[in-house]
């Protein structure tokens, strides 16, 4: 039986569109992902990036929850160095109170932005907060009833609304072995960011499993991998639709943060040797092609990594390209 499918979205801002357009587009994609049978839909936290409108995952999650009924919604992730653990606990406790059993809290260690913006967010430049990530994770877990941190302020204060019969499902996210080992030690589910990570996912996930210790949250390791996908009726069409992702990948690596261009504009771009070397490392879309072939390759990827769940991300110019990719993969997922 095929593993469950989930979605990561960054609310990419298309050239000629507004941030508001991007946010409503994400909500529409979430609705279509739910209709296609996806298990969960996560949104990322990024700051000071004209290409990304998803700066506040809890706000966007609340908007998506109001427009959907069953799909789990969460952060992929909240960048914990940017926030006080109590603030995050209260935000996600409130989401869980409003939508019981549907909220995920994915946590990341990176600030998700440049150091100047990190300083504006947390006033300490973000560096110390990143180094204290394990402590802050334990503090946050304490607000949800985890008692492994003896001197936690949760002994004296309550995250409001107080956790009831359910609380958000907490995940650790990462693009290296660090978060994998920490997730294992804490007995939490783990998601590897294969969509931009440069490490072998098999090695990272093996580290997670080898470090895993059972917890009240999880008796056995539960791993997910997030990768980039564009599927279409033909390989040629998929290659054309993947053009904006290639342009975005090059611009991100060369310090140019611009709204995502259309496939037609991307097709006119000529890539120099530097751009071609960037694409050789990461094409911007790791799995692209005709839908049946893409689904088969993804299933092979699942077998190779041994994950219990697969998350799909896409950098696309328009709503329909991403939603159609999700629908096509789901149709061929057996």
Task: Give start-end ranges of low-pLDDT stretches.
Answer: none
Helix content: 40-55%
Count of domains: 1
State the end-to-end distance: 7 Å
CATH superfamily: Luciferase-like domain
Rg calculated over all Cα atoms:
19 Å
Could you tell me the strand content as a percent range? Answer: 15-25%
What's the β-strand tally? 9
CATH class: Alpha Beta
CATH architecture: Alpha-Beta Barrel
Multimerization status: single chain
The number of helical runs is 14
Biggest sheet: strand arrangement: 1-2-3-4-5-6-7-9
Largest sheet: 8 strands, parallel, barrel
* Average pLDDT score: 91
One letter per element, helices H and strands E, the order comes to EHEHEHEHHHEHEHEHHHHEHEH
By CATH, the topology is: TIM Barrel
Detailed description of the structure:
The protein is of the alpha/beta class and 334 residues long. It has a single domain (5-232, 286-331), classed as TIM Barrel (Alpha-Beta Barrel). Helix content is 44%, strand content 16%. The protein contains 14 helices and nine strands. An eight-stranded parallel beta barrel has the order 1-2-3-4-5-6-7-9, surrounded by eight helices. The longest helix is centred in the first third of the chain and has 17 residues, at 19-35. The chain is globular and about 60 Å long. The mean pLDDT is 91.
């Amino acid at each position: 039986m095929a593993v469950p499918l989930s979605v990561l979205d960054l609310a990419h801002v298309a050239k000629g569109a507004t941030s508001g357009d991007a946010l409503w587009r994400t909500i529409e994609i979430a609705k279509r992902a739910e209709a296609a049978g996806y298990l969960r839909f996560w949104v990322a936290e990024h700051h000071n990036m004209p290409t990304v409108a998803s700066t506040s995952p809890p706000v966007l999650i609340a908007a998506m929850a109001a427009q959907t009924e069953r799909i789990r919604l969460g952060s992929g992730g909240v960048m914990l160095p940017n926030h006080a653990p109590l603030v995050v606990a209260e935000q996600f406790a409130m989401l869980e109170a409003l939508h019981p059993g549907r909220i995920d809290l994915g946590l990341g260690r990176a600030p998700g932005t440049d150091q100047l913006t990190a300083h504006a967010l947390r006033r300490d430049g973000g560096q110390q907060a990143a180094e204290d990530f394990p402590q802050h994770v334990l503090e946050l877990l304490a607000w949800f009833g985890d008692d492994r941190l003896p001197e936690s302020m949760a002994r004296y204060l309550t995250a409001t609304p107080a956790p009831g019969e359910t609380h958000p499902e907490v995940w650790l996210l990462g693009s290296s072995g660090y978060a994998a080992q920490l997730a294992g030690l804490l007995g939490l589910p783990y998601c590897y960011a294969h969509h931009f990570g440069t490490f072998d996912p098999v090695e990272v996930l093996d580290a997670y499993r080898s470090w895993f210790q059972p917890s009240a949250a999880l008796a056995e390791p539960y791993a997910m991998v997030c990768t980039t996908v564009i599927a279409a009726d033909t390989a040629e069409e998929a290659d054309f639709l993947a053009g904006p992702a290639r342009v975005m990948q090059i611009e991100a690596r060369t310090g140019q943060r611009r709204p995502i261009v259309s496939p037609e504009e991307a097709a006119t771009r000529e890539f120099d040797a530097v751009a071609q070397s960037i694409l050789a490392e990461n094409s911007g879309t790791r799995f692209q092609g005709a839908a049946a072939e893409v689904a088969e390759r993804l299933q092979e990827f699942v077998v190779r990594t041994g994950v219990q769940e697969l998350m799909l991300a896409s950098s696309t110019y328009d709503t329909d390209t991403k939603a159609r990719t999700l629908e096509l993969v789901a149709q061929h997922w057996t």
